Structure formats: C-alpha cells, structure tokens
Amino acid sequence: MTTAPLPPFPAGFRWGVSTSAYQIEGGADADGRGPSIWDTFAHTPGRIVDGSTGDVACDHYHRHAEDVALMAGLGVSAYRFSISWPRVQPGGGGPANPAGLDFYERLVDDLLATGIDPVATLFHWDLPQPLEDAGGWLHRDTAGRFAEYADLVAARLGDRVKLWITLNEPFIHMSLGHGTGVHAPGRFLLFDAFPVAHHQLLAHGLAVAALRARSSSPVAIANNYSPVVPRGDTDADRAAGLAYDALHNRLFTDPLLGLGYPPGIAPAGVRDGDLDVIAAPLDVLGVNYYNPTGIRAAEEDSPLPFELVPLEGHPRTAFDWPVVPDGLRDLLTGLKERYGDALPPIQVTESGCAYDDAPDAEGRVHDPERIAYLDGHLRAVREAIDAGVDVTGYFVWSLLDNWEWAEGFTKRFGLVHVDFATGARTPKSSYAWYRDLVTRR
Length: 441
Description:
three-stranded mixed β-sheet; eight-stranded parallel beta barrel; cellulose degradation; EC 3.2.1.21; TIM Barrel; alpha/beta
C-alpha cells in the first residue's frame, strides 16, 4: 500500500457503507415478517458451509440505533441498506405489513437525523417464499408483484429516501441462485435460467415507473461487474471471453441502456414493449466490483462455452478472490468506452474484501489488508474520474461483519467486527482509516 495521501475527490462525492437485510437484520419471526427463499435455503441441511442461518445474523432489527451511531461515527454521507420484501409483504402480495414498514421508517428517520442519506435497495435476493412457490423469477407475474411492492415502500418512504436501487446484482441471483444452485432458491438450470434475467429486468423497469410516481428521488440498479481476462491466445479462448463478457457484464446493462439483449442471448418470454419498459432512463448506475474473471475455452464435453480460470500473481482475500484494484479502473473506463453518452453517472455501490479478522489480546481488531484494499480501489476510482468517467460515490462493503450467504458466518467483510455469539460490535482499524479519510473530505 502506498503511503501517499489519496488525491482529492470531486465536491459532493458520496462516501458510504452498504449492507443487506437478510445478512444483518435477524428478527426472522419478528412483527409479522414472512419467510424468504433464503430462510428456506439456509434451513436445508448441507446448503450453508457452517450450518448457520440468518435467523439472528447481526440482530440489526433490534440494534439498528447502535449501527446508525457507528455510521455517524464514521462520518459517512450515505448508507445503502436493503428492504426485506417478506418483512413488508409477508406473502409477496396484498397490503403492506405495517410493522415492517414502521421498522424502515424508524431507520430512515434515524439516518436523516444524523445527516446520513438513506439509499434503499428494494431487492437483495430475499424473495418471499410464497412467490417462489408460485414460480418465482421464472414466472412473469413476479415482475408485476415487485412493482406493487415498490409502490407500497415508496408510498411510505418516498419523501425521505435519497436514492432508490431496484435490484442488487441480478446476474449473481440468476447465475448462482438459478443457474448453478449454490444460492437460494437452489435451482440448477444452467442456461434455462435466462427467463430469470428477463423477469428481473422487467421488474426493474416496472418498479422505476412505480417509484417515480411516488418519489422525486433518483433511481438506480446495482449490477455486479467483472472484467474478463482471457487465459489463452487462441481464437476459441477469445471467443470464450466474449461469451462470458456478454453473459456477466452486458446481459444486465445493454437492455437497460436501450440496446436490447446482447447478440446470441434471447431470453424466452420477451413480449412487445418489454424492452421499452426495461430501458426506462436511469439516474445512476450502481457498480459492484470485487475482482476480474479469468476465462478460457471450455473442453468439448462442457455444458458451458467457457471455463473460469484462477488469476495468479495477485494477493488473495479469505474468499480466495484476487485483489486487483486496476480491474476497477478498467471496468469503469470500459463502461464509458462501451456506452458513451448513454452511460448515466456511476456510483460504486459495493467494494470490499473478506479477511479472517479477530480481536487481539486487548480486544482490538487490526485489518491492514482491508486498509490496503480500500486504498488501492479508491485510487482506481480516482484514476477513472481523471479519465473522464462520471463517478459520484463509493460504498464500502460492508459496515458490519455479516452472514455471508452460502458461506454462513465464515467470511468477514466488515469495517466493524461482530461477535456473532453476543452481537458485540468492535470497530476495526479499517473503520478508523475510513473515518479519517471521510472526515478529511
């Protein structure tokens, strides 16, 4: 890590932290919340590495005031959280659960009282289980249900949420949840999962209209992006790289920006007018970045046209992901080169790393690897801004160590250490580093 100070960022740059509902809230049975696909998945033996569930997680549902105080101590200007659909609509339809909306109203008001902008994500993978039982994202009707849910939330919070994010990482939810089955709902469909892509995108477009009817705040989507690094020099390797890039990076961006689906990808069930709904103008494009992906041509008997290959020669996180800050710069400049004036302003809505952090004998948690990671990635953002990319914010993933999906409690991403047995919060050295950075800004 360089010891030189980070260069200045543009005036008004949004400094934030991110979380998601199922990963931190707990309160699984509190105040009328219904089951989600992640409740079902986590309670299925063999699905989660350590056998844990998100039933309690960080108990943010009961300790949110403590967590808002931690954010106030950081000095961040924004908090990106997600709203639990089954907490608001336990059955996935019908009237709102008042207690569920009351919780988010308390959270939003507490944030505003401390000068922190609420940034609300409507869907971070926790689909109400009754909707999954009716077909889930394979069923077109789910898109319409999502728009109704968006309307209910915006009717209550539309005057106070400062940025709406419709969906989080629809590619990951499609590929891991429906393609390979390692995430909820655990479907193994491979390319038969493409209807999930279209119905999520249609849900986004319908929700944009619902949000704008209730709220004047800007609207975004948060996509996961991964620059593709071909690991081979044959035409087949290069073709494999292009195929993976179309699937991971273009499938959920080209249609949003009015370009339709990438060549060679044609989800079933597209109706006249759908692409116009999907291409509703975005105010912000959320970019989630963790690492590039090495790709080479697959073997002849593979069901996929590409093979993922580890990228060597880089430091690695506890998730065994390569740490490549330049990949974020290249991603941001590449989006600008690909989409030009059609590209809206960008906010980096997730950027972070997992390490095996633990308190020392004095109870302090030192995480120099995370400081180095954040320093490098923020320098990459600054380089992209210098290259002409309109990047207006950066959110660290995550505020808290959390329940990390199929990895359970085995991976720690937080600026704040959480003792999952007691719920005790301990700010790490990265918390102090980020606080000092933000307050200097």
